[in-house]
Fold this protein.
Amino acid sequence: MAESKLHLLSDESKGEIDTWIAKYPKDQKKSAVMAALTIVQDANGGWLTQELMDMVAEYLAMEPISVYEVATFYSMYELKPVGRHKICVCTNISCMLCGSDAVVSHLKDKLGIGFGGITTDGKISLKEVECLGACGGAPMLQIGDQYYENLTPEKIDSILDNLK
Amino acid sequence: MINIEIDGLKIEAQDGAMLIEAADEVGISIPRFCYHKKLSVAANCRMCLVDVEKAAKPLPACATPVTEGMKVFTQSQKAISAQKGVMEFLLINHPLDCPICDQGGECDLQDLAVGYGGGETRYSENKRVVKNKNIGSLIATDMTRCIHCTRCVRFGEEIAGVRELGAIGRGEHMEIGTYVASTISSELSGNMIDLCPVGALTSKPFRYSARNWEMQRHPSIAGHDCVGSNIDLDVRDNNIMRVVPRENEEINETWISDRDRFSYEGLNSKDRLTAPMIKQSGEWQRVSWDTALAFALNGVKELVGRHGAEHLGTLVSPSATLEEMYLLQKLVRGLGSSNIDHRVRQLDFSDQNRAPAFPYLGQSIESLGQSDAVLLVGANITKDQPILGHRVRQAALFGAKVMCVNSVDYKVNMPLAEKLITDVAGMEAALAGILKALLNMNKIAAPSGIDQLLHSVSISATHEKMAANLSKASHGSVLLGLSAASHPAYSTLYALAECIAELSGAKLGSLSLGANSAGAWLSGAVPHRTADSASSNQTSAGLNAIQMFTAPRKGYFLFGIEPEFDSVDPVVTTQSLKDAEFVVAFSSYASTVLSDVANVFLPISPYTETSGTFVNVEGRWQSFKGVVSPQEDTRPAWKILRVLGNLFELKGFDYMSSIEVRDELKKCLGDIKLSNKRAWLCPELSGNISEQIVEIPIYGADAITRRAVSLSITPDATGHTIVMN
Ligand code: SF4
Ligand code: FES
Ligand code: FES
């Protein structure tokens, strides 16, 4: 038996996860895995370590591999460090037709990083994502909980300027 | 029943069956990759698309339930073009490395590509490459070949009971793996090799050694545990190249344990004994059979002449064949000795006269899987009898309450309703507690003597819950495992378990050591019974496996025995053997210890090179043939024993075949009662027990397995992080 990782769980995160667990039938704790991963990721500066995933597995009585599967499947989980602001640019079909290529190259030039990269000051990281369901406002990107639509180079500049 | 029509053929299908099952039933083959009859339906490969009347699109046959009046076309234009389309997708990324792939010639993808694949690809993009994973010594991976059918993943979850492989990432980036480098630990892991429809998971020990069309397949019976799994031996150039399962729904279904699959490596180990040898003034020399047999004959004759036949002790491996055991006991009894035993791991023989005809599971293997409560007593069923462990696990998944009383906290792959871990001495009290709780609960009259016996026994909440689960069950099973059989107070544990089973209406069963403990009892490889009286005892019993060493004999027959492993006290055993005047070793291997203690080596064929019979724990007689010829001067042991019998001028050793031996025994035995019932006799609690139980390593139970290199480096063999109490 590997040693317990539960000491990595803060009381605060634990409380949040417990509210999610409470939403599901008693014997289906593992339904809370996505919420738990999000909570733990947020508390860890935006990314998940293997230890943290093991901890979630232990807390929800799942096999670690099942947690890895979830964490590697969904693009909102990060398995490597990210910047304080994670810019997710949609390059799926609608956005691509409306010019996501230009959005991407503008961002890359401006920030001096590619997809998966982090600016040297650790402020911003860039990520390519699939359709975020906002095709009506294509091309679009997401930072934190916020969608930014109908992007132009000027609009992107002002978004970047406003990031703290 | 539901009426449907497939390709114009009117058939009746089971309610709730999937189309693919209905088609399989009547022999209409629908191509498939992810569907497997023993696994859940994933419907993710889409190879099984068929054309169903009134359905707009082709439907996956593995996930479409049959409905009344359904008309299905598996060969229509629509079906074929759907299947071709799927195949084209699969081949976008699948490498064209069949010439160097071990699966070549027995690959579902290769076969179906011949039927449904295009001659040319329409893709000019590079194929994707996936890094191989090192998942241990048994399974080789070539993950670029994986088609993501997830059979291996589902197998882990549903059959092995440990989720070790998973689907990591998604879309084009999906990979099957463990995410963190780790070794597969399941004792059934080799089945993933059979399940994988492509060459992504192949056998590591077998790798690159043969093509499937170069081998002949021969049916046989696995010789490493009491299950008697049905196997096929693949042979090329008189060599066993690999072992695969042969389907038998009543025993092993489509599975076999890793031990049964990979032990064959031990057959060709360096210390295989391939010629008769005698030791003269401390020097071993290779001799002819005549010389060796004459040497053995004289040695034994002189010894018997000097000290009497009671000074002969015979120890036989519980994995020897029925015929070998029968002839061996016939030989030594003919010489006047009853000191013969196969119970090399037993300490307590006190109730041997009351034992049933053989250690019986108490029911069939299939029936065990239908239990709704199982109490495991001193049993590491997952590792010791993986196929039975699998049956019990399936029962657990269907809601059976599986409980254990053990002196080691074994790792199990199933949910346990209750668990009681105690020290060796505490095993009695644990069972007594359950028994008392059972009596209290059901207010039934206790069998004579029990009230007094249980007087000072205390009951815990766990005892009560276990008792309740058993009494509530309509099909309870109480199983005594290998560690119970090695317990210093085995007879007491047995009697308590017997009483628990009786009072709760459960079936009592024993799990026995080796491939043929059942056969050993039936054939008379025990000191107190012979085949003519398999369930009645001889008036004067010979010495058992312990006594013949604690009261050392002057001479010994060792049959398939390695004294340093096949003994509860190797030090005493080896010393007695060293001190003996004459030791005849029938063996397939010349180990150091054996070379040290023996005077003559008679090289015997392992089960792959001789015909014979194993009787499994259900009492099922399974005969098999030798599939390769004996190595060099090795001989099937039944023949050697026949010659020896004649040399000793004993009567009745003129057999033409091993079948004659078996049939003679069968006739002797008459009807064998398949039952564990016996007259009640109240046991005594022994109280203070200081002995420890020496656990049998999972890959250490017999001489062949001990030499299987790939098994010896698995986590089960090395990790062994069990905690002794
Ligand atoms: S490794 Fe084999 S069994 Fe597992 S998903 Fe890939 S193709 Fe299927
Ligand atoms: S394609 Fe970009 S949001 Fe849908
Ligand atoms: S076999 Fe039906 S979808 Fe794979």
Summary: Chain A touches chain B at residues 1, 50, 63-66, 68-69, 72-73 (CB under 8 Å).
